[in-house]
Give the backbone structure.
Amino acid sequence: MNKKTKKRILYVFLIGIVIAVSIVYYLFNMPQRDVQSTETDFTLSADQIVEAYLTDATLANNTYLQEDGDSKVMAITGEIFSINTDLNNQKVIRLKSSTSKAGVSCTFTQSTNASVDGLKIGDIITVKGVIRSGAGYDEDLEMYEDVIIEKCDLINNKNK
Amino acid sequence: MKKVSFTAIVLSLFLLTSFTVTQDKLVSKSTHISFYSHTSVEDIVANNYKVVSTLETTTGNIVYSVPMQSFEFEKSLMQKHYNSKKFLDTKTYPKAKFIGTITNLESIDFTKDGSYNATVTGKLTIKDQTNPINEKAIITVTGGKVSLDTKMNLTLSDYGVVFSDGKPSENIAKELEVTVKAVYGN
């Protein structure tokens, strides 16, 4: 092996290490998925997703939740039942029809909160967000829990 | 036909009433649970604002229902690890639950503004594993609004979360500090 070949091998080796370290560093510091720019997986009404959970929660969890926590991106249409703010100063819109036992709790983010301005109870809206957990009757709470979607934003204007 | 619909209305009214949560049961959807893990390698914090809790002022019964996928981490990879089958397996066990009771209910006046020390005993279920919890909490009553604050340490291996080797065993503390806050409405 001459000197030139040795040098070449060394370079290749060094470049390899740099690439490997950058990949590890990138993966380690990879930012969170941007839900709003992710393609919607399911488009449903608030009643449909609630019903799916009340009928068969295990099946619904298998369909909508992902093992790594990056669960399905949902576009949910429904009637505004209430508008609140959580302890992280995020707007929370509860979509629920008058006949349904549970609703869909949609949490906006500090950067999408402004989309909620001007909305009022009774408006029909479509919200896009990531699903975190399903609806169901909890016998310890003695109440129905809502489907939870987070990192929400409106995807169309209200059309009453 | 008329009779049928009348019966239906009466029946549904009856059903609705029987499902109505009683007045002394406070519900909170304004909550914040965070956990903190400290090792020399790195500090990890995760926040969850989507917990639902009830507090029954007459019996002292407290329930927390925790949607596990709502824990938000700074780094995506941490969150993926946390949710995965190897750790909390949140797809199979999407919720954690605490059921407990305030044991010194006599020293708390929910109708009078003030800060009260409460002792809470109960059971915490994470990933289908249940362990007893005995903690102190502070109950604050301000203008009729009740809130609860507490801090506790959880040992991960008690809930079947064990890492014997690899990166997580160095980066994640064996014991987590968990901070809980709930503001109850009516």
